Amino acid sequence: MLKLRTSRPFAKFPQLFTVYSNYRLKGFRVKIGDVSKQTRCKIETIRYYERIGVIDPPPRRGAYRDYGLRDIERLRFVRRARELGFSLEEVRALLDLTPGPDVHCDQVQSIAEQHLGNVRAKLADLARMETALTKLIRQCGTTSDDRCPVLESLAGGEG
Fold this sequence. Notes:
Elements lengths: L13 H4 L14 H8 L3 H10 L7 E2 L2 E2 L3 H15 L4 H9 L8 H35 L9 H6 L5
């Protein structure tokens, strides 16, 4: 692997943001199927990310897209962020904040803290749903045969 030296400080995130000569590296051309395997992103997802601008469309050689190492690293970053539940809007913001001369960790921290708040709110909602469903299920079999507490609750009854 050929690493290029740059004036940017990449020391904190070398595994994510090592700068490579993306398309000029002789002999390094990866097709979308191989990128999909290396990044564990489906081909349709990769194409979708290209369409919406999360990743830049790679240069084409005839009918084929030729992906470089930078594309693979960026897709891995996106996949990991999505696995943590970050929205595509948040992922774009994080990608915009990747190492450079004006990057401040406090901006990344702010995005992550906001996301954590959203995750905690979802967990609280799920706990309320669990309690409500548990209560309804316990009532099953305790009423007459022509009543179902779950269906009555879904229909807007007392349940």
